[in-house]
Amino acid sequence: MWAYLFTVALEMLTSYLLTSFLQIGNFQASYWVKEFFNGGSGPGSYFVPLVLQIIFFLPVLYILAQKNANLMLIGAFALNILFELGCYYWAMPQSTYRFIFLRYLFAIALGIWLAKAKHINWYLVTAGALLSLLYITGVSFYDLRPPVQPDWSPQNAPAFFWPFMVVLLGLKLLPEQANGPVKLIAALGKASYHIFLSQMVYFYYMDYLFAKLPLGLYILINLTICLSAGYLFYLLEQKLRAVLNTKKEAGYAVSQ
């Protein structure tokens, strides 16, 4: 846990330092602190403080899953729904709601449950995924207005069965030994968090450079830049980790 926390903190610091230099020309501690609590700059920037919350809460769900994974999952869904209802009836502003990890509680619980599950009931999963798809379609394209935070209605507990089904199908159908395009997708998947941090900065400051190009070319250039920058960021971190681990092992050997 602490190793991952250090990695997240290092990535977050790198991202915010770069953002700070791009926006105000130099680093100011007060600006960095303010940006952290405001969620930073760029699309999805709220996700960084959200991940930090999840890291600290994850062991609680894991301990509960050790005792009874099914009960943990049901409890997480119920708590997630209660949170959504509370946000709706107390009119929690979107700017506050986006920072609270409880809105993703059921999604996190599904991941832990999957890691512990010995048997998957595909009938229940399929039924849940279809209901989620209907819910997402209703709130996105029709006049379905459930009592949840309206700005994020397609991305809450009732919608999480659908991406869960997609993950399960990927685990079941994709080959264990990847080759060609699948191998490339798998490599990019490992760097997904680094790609996220890269696109957070890029789309806030630099995508306008190609805004006048045809849409297809614009998308291709943006994808190439974000995927390449994110993957290079990932490789750099792996190198740094290897160096730190080597030094740690050398220090341990000397102490012995």
Automatic annotation (TrEMBL):
Q: Which domain of life is it from?
A: Bacteria
Q: Does the keyword Ribosomal protein apply?
A: no
Residues passing through the membrane, by range: 5-24, 44-64, 71-91, 97-115, 122-142, 157-175, 187-205, 217-236
- Asked if the keyword Lyase belongs to this entry, the reply reads no
Give the record's keywords alphabetically: Membrane, Transmembrane, Transmembrane helix
Q: What is this protein called?
A: Acyltransferase family protein
